[in-house]
Amino acid sequence: MTGESEKSWILMATARSPTNIAVIKYWGKRDEELILPVNDSISVTLDPDHLSATTTVAVSPSFEQDRMWLNGKEISLSGGRYQNCLREIRKRARDVEDEKKGIRIQKDDWNNLHVHIASYNNFPTAAGLASSAAGFACLVFALAKLMNVKEEYGELSSIARQGSGSACRSIYGGFVKWAMGNNPDGSDSIAIQLAEETHWNDLFIVIAVVSSKQKETSSTSGMRESVQTSALLKYRAETVVPSRVLKIEEAIRDHDFASFARITCADSNQFHAICLDTTPPIFYMNDTSHRIISLVERWNQSEGTLQVAYTFDAGPNAVMIAPNRQAAALLLQRLLFYFPPPQDTDLTSYILGDKSILQEAGLQSVEGIEALAPPPESKDKVPRKKFAGDISYFICTRIGSGPKLLADENQALIDPVNGLPK
Amino acid sequence: MTGESEKSWILMATARSPTNIAVIKYWGKRDEELILPVNDSISVTLDPDHLSATTTVAVSPSFEQDRMWLNGKEISLSGGRYQNCLREIRKRARDVEDEKKGIRIQKDDWNNLHVHIASYNNFPTAAGLASSAAGFACLVFALAKLMNVKEEYGELSSIARQGSGSACRSIYGGFVKWAMGNNPDGSDSIAIQLAEETHWNDLFIVIAVVSSKQKETSSTSGMRESVQTSALLKYRAETVVPSRVLKIEEAIRDHDFASFARITCADSNQFHAICLDTTPPIFYMNDTSHRIISLVERWNQSEGTLQVAYTFDAGPNAVMIAPNRQAAALLLQRLLFYFPPPQDTDLTSYILGDKSILQEAGLQSVEGIEALAPPPESKDKVPRKKFAGDISYFICTRIGSGPKLLADENQALIDPVNGLPK
């Protein structure tokens, strides 16, 4: 290892990785240590412009230990999940040479070099939007770039998996399958890209971040309890999911929105059914989640075909997938009719992400929302009660691309001089 | 047929029948017409003093058609469910003689005689407390008495079943099993008494009637949709339930409260899981139901043994079963801490049924409730938020006896002179 001055140099890599939302759910591990699932899962990668993690990894002979800062706050790296990722990437590290900076690191040097990691989510970490998926995918991707790891994406996904199961699916854009694999060592439990984001880029996604004061069961302990106590989980994993996986792969291939939506909704509901079948039961959805489902189901039913799909992860937030912008605009009209922004909330802080959809929905102002007519399908069926305050905000987004290296050093989260978060 | 004056006589019978709460749930029919279930179910009969239907059936040659009044309001008897019960009982009718009144009805006369039926529930019909179970059991029982039907209770249960499935279990007191049977004609799909109410009469039951504005899916259409669309229902019915039935029968036999409670909670949760696995999903429990479950689960967990069991039917109301009055008093303290009566509600209209339990709970006044300390297990775990108004009232009751004939004519709901509801 050589550098301008033995102690002063810092080498960095910065990457941005998307989050993803499963349409066939991952719930249950067959191996807790290696994070090997009981069934395949399939996800849609979300646009990193709206939901992603950015991570800078830096190495320097002056660093005395591995350290990490998440959203500006130092966190411990002692957990097995971080250690797994660091160990597996270090194992595959190669010679690195930065001619401009005059830095040369040899393969074996990596074992004696420490890293500083700074990561930042462009969306609230606590909102239950799979921040760990984006985070671990980004960590692994950035470390791999820094350490000149040449392994294929499939292998990187298998390393990210050991940080957080669903992180393996964030290694690709578009539509991604996490194949559960068969090998006891987990080497074939990897993510595979089913289709790029451009394959079906009409899809439009609306996320409702539901206000919740309830403390939720973490997905790690929740799925452990489900595996141990649910009488239905094994049947779901072995019998129901395999056929759904085949069918939704076909639906994605054929742009068959009706099938895609039908399976997506059914699988989200079945995942929550398994949670309810757990002892003690786990409730991730609340009354607001139920109201959103009812709103979508009534609309679907009145039209006779599926207008939008919904899916819920381990929390009350709804992720709704519309076949195109037009349907998304109609969806937003319905959502904003029932869940208008609370008083004194302006629209730009209530609708995040791709705000241009508001124009298509004819909703450029709070007054426009107040003037919304009730959805035609609501007639005589439900009291047209409104629920202002039950949703914190909406994020409008679309299907997105996989991890990317950010070459511009200005985007780095670590100061290239002192090696600490900017 | 003879009487004092051919047109003027009226003969009546009045009965009272309990409602019941399933601990192994009935959800799904294999035959919609005959009401044959996809699995056995097991229930506890509730004390008719607190939850029952009273029904008077009257016959007179002056009656021009079959008519029925429910809670004072005339309702149509044209539905297949009422017709099934009337037809099956008439088929089994025998000679009747009332010497005092000088009335003689011969077996074949019953086909030409019309009945008037008046029924009354001593609890709110709309509260989702299995009013139809008590009602159809009572109708069948009273008609059988009036028409001198000699068939055994098992056969009566099979007739009540054709009115409302769970009604067959209200033909007995104590612990009752509805055996699904095998015969296509339903003749062996009958209720069986597992144990009398005296077998385990320490049990104490607290029902929380949850305020709900949401319109609920009827259980008839709900279970039809589950049978048609849930990917898990068949597995539950064929694989999970049979072993649970065996185990809970053992638990009842042995007064093994821990097993009884564990299976009761798990089966309630699994029934609601199947509802959630239905397309479109059915939500019977709401946030208040979830809070009650969490309260009980936290308590059970902190004690290390099951203190009480909970079970929910097709609605948000919680039925909680405590092993004895002492545990029920501790349960009430917890429930009333989180769900105090709304302002200006007095305790006697908030706690119905066996109010003597309030004394054991040290809660004879609203002030006593306000002074309640938080349950010890709540410490540092959840915000001690209170939810006044989320529960309409509680009913305190116990395990009860089966249908009974009320010999006192003063208890009849029909005027013996004009044949109309009093």
UniProtKB/TrEMBL annotation, chains A, B:
For the keyword Mitochondrion, the answer is no
- Which residue ranges does the record assign to the Diphosphomevalonate decarboxylase-like N-terminal domain? 18-191
State the reactions this protein catalyses: (R)-5-diphosphomevalonate + ATP = isopentenyl diphosphate + ADP + phosphate + CO2
How is this protein annotated for GO cellular component?
Answer: cytosol
Q: Does the keyword Lipid biosynthesis apply?
A: yes
Its EC number is 4.1.1.33
Q: GO:BP terms for this protein?
A: isopentenyl diphosphate biosynthetic process, mevalonate pathway; sterol biosynthetic process
Name the InterPro entries on file: GHMP_kinase_C_sf (IPR036554), Mev_decarb (IPR005935), Mev_diP_decarb (IPR029765), MVD-like_N (IPR053859), Mvd1_C (IPR041431), Ribosomal_Su5_D2-typ_SF (IPR020568), Ribsml_uS5_D2-typ_fold_subgr (IPR014721)
UniProt GO molecular function: ATP binding; diphosphomevalonate decarboxylase activity
Q: Where does the Mvd1 C-terminal domain start and stop, copy by copy? A: 205-405
Keywords of the record, alphabetical order, are: ATP-binding, Lipid biosynthesis, Lipid metabolism, Lyase, Nucleotide-binding, Steroid biosynthesis, Steroid metabolism, Sterol biosynthesis, Sterol metabolism
**Database matches in Pfam families:** MDD_C, MVD-like_N
What job does this protein perform? Performs the first committed step in the biosynthesis of isoprene-containing compounds such as sterols and terpenoids.
Q: Which family does it belong to?
A: Belongs to the diphosphomevalonate decarboxylase family.
Please give the name of this protein.
Diphosphomevalonate decarboxylase
Query: What is the native source organism of this protein?
Result: Ananas comosus (Pineapple)
Lineage, opening ranks: Eukaryota, Viridiplantae, Streptophyta, Embryophyta, Tracheophyta
Q: Which gene encodes it?
A: LOC109723270
